[in-house]
């Protein structure tokens, strides 16, 4: 099939308009789009005078929005594949379930929770673990060690080791906006922060709830790669430190203790 390259004009609206436009293009099978730097509502097909362009910053923001939307619509980075959740049983796609629930006036959170419970949602590696012996799973992990392995290759490795295909479909769990479901974990956060560290001067660590072990492991892991790494840290006054594993003395010394981890 010949790839479709489409003209997206100036994005037809605000940044959210650009996102919706890209989504519609992707769902229609468009492989690539062109987007220009002309001002919305002032576009003229002329030679020479008469065209109004947007500031460079606005054009770059427009392009960034388009790129981000493509990334959301397509799990294109193999470094993210270990953390994307997929259905391991044959179910109605989540986006269709949400659309039907919306027509019937059902609560989104309730519908989502019920769908996830019936879907056995997990990562591909977890799906492998669910049907593999301990020895097979160790062999599987050893095959992945030290390299970035995309989903398609993970499928091949697992099939060779297990003698069967692993039931896993991350397309079924996509939201109505095209987003994939993601398994948040400390390792996922660390992996991404290690990759992003060279692009910024500080790494900002933030916890919604205090967790002493995660706090220590996160900063230790980053500094094992970047020994002089500096951090910012954000938390709210509503922190319940006792539930996070902190003693009264550790609460008193919290600021000085995190400073030793590189928090400035």
UniProtKB/TrEMBL annotation:
Protein EC: 4.1.3.30
Q: Which UniProt keywords apply?
A: Lyase
Q: Which domain of life is it from?
A: Eukaryota
SUPFAM superfamilies under this entry? Phosphoenolpyruvate/pyruvate domain
Does Cell wall biogenesis/degradation appear among the keywords? no
- Record's catalysed reaction(s): (2S,3R)-3-hydroxybutane-1,2,3-tricarboxylate = pyruvate + succinate
What is its EC class?
Answer: lyase
Q: Which InterPro entries match?
A: Isocitrate_lyase, Pyrv/PenolPyrv_kinase-like_dom, Pyrv_kinase-like_dom_sf
Q: Which GO terms describe its biological process?
A: carboxylic acid metabolic process
Q: Which GO terms describe its molecular function?
A: isocitrate lyase activity; methylisocitrate lyase activity
Q: Which PANTHER family does this one have?
A: BIFUNCTIONAL GLYOXYLATE CYCLE PROTEIN (PTHR21631:SF3), ISOCITRATE LYASE/MALATE SYNTHASE (PTHR21631)
The entry's family comment says:
Belongs to the isocitrate lyase/PEP mutase superfamily. Isocitrate lyase family.
- Assembly, per entry: Homotetramer.
Name this protein carries in UniProt: methylisocitrate lyase
Species of origin: Stachybotrys chartarum (strain CBS 109288 / IBT 7711)
Q: What is the lineage of its organism?
A: Eukaryota, Fungi, Dikarya, Ascomycota, Pezizomycotina
């Amino acid at each position: 099939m010949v790839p479709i390259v489409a003209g997206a004009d100036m994005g037809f609206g605000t940044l959210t308009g650009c996102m919706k436009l890209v989504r519609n293009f992707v769902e229609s099978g468009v492989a690539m789009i062109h987007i220009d730097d002309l001002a919305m509502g002032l576009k003229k097909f002329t030679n020479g005078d008469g065209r109004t362009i947007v500031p460079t910053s606005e054009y770059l923001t427009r392009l960034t929005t388009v790129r981000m939307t493509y990334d959301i619509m397509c799990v294109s980075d193999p470094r993210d594949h270990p953390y994307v959740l997929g259905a391991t049983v044959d179910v109605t796609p989540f986006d269709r379930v949400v659309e039907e629930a919306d027509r019937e006036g059902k609560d989104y959170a309730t519908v989502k929770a019920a769908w996830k419970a019936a879907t056995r949602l997990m990562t591909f590696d977890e799906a492998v673990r669910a049907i593999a012996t301990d020895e097979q799973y160790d062999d599987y992990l050893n095959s992945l060690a030290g390299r970035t392995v995309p989903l398609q290759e993970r499928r091949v490795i697992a099939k060779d080791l297990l003698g069967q295909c692993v039931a896993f479909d991350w397309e079924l769990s996509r939201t109505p906006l095209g987003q994939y479901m993601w398994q948040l974990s400390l390792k996922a956060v660390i992996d991404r922060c290690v990759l992003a560290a060279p692009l910024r001067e500080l790494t900002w660590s933030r916890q919604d709830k205090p967790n002493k072990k995660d706090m220590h492991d996160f900063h230790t892991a980053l500094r094992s790669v970047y020994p002089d790494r500096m951090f910012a840290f954000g938390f709210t006054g509503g922190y319940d430190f006792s539930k996070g594993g902190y003693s009264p003395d550790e609460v008193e010394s919290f600021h000085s203790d995190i400073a030793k981890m590189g928090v400035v």
